[in-house]
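Predict structure. Input: 3-phenylpropionate/cinnamic acid dioxygenase subunit beta, 168 residues.
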Amino acid sequence: MTEPNLQEIEQFLYREARLLDNRQFHQWLELLAEDVRYWMPCGHPVTRPSDPRDLTEPDELVVIDEDMDSLRRRIERLDSGFAWAEDPPSRTRHFISNVELESTESPDEVKVYSNFIMYRTRGEREEDFYVGSREDILRRSEKGWLIAYRRIILDQTVISAKNVSNFF
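Output follows.
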């Protein structure tokens, strides 16, 4: 296998952001591996960010902890018209930066670090900014790169948004 290059991975992440911003959620699902783990730990407001206890562990309380099945069900619910947290639908804009690659033990996978800002607006007055970083493991497949793992780390220790119904 050839080593992935930074531009190739950045283009993959930019395409993902475009699909999310255009609410093309079924196409977004095609970028995920069947065994994906998609999760966001909680932050502890009383610790320093460099403290290893700053974030909850995977088996502790988390904001989001999903697999392919739960992500599919969430998108089906958005399609149904009965997802009240998304009526009217959110408009989002994802900004991805500071992309770094790190080798893994598997020649078909690469660890990717990135920073993000997601702006969300809904209705007439709702606006939210989510700022943070992501740790992804991308896996090369016959279809191209797939997200096998995503850990979303928000800089906010308290989420002021009414809900966390969007994808990061």
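The chain is about 20% helix and 40% strand.
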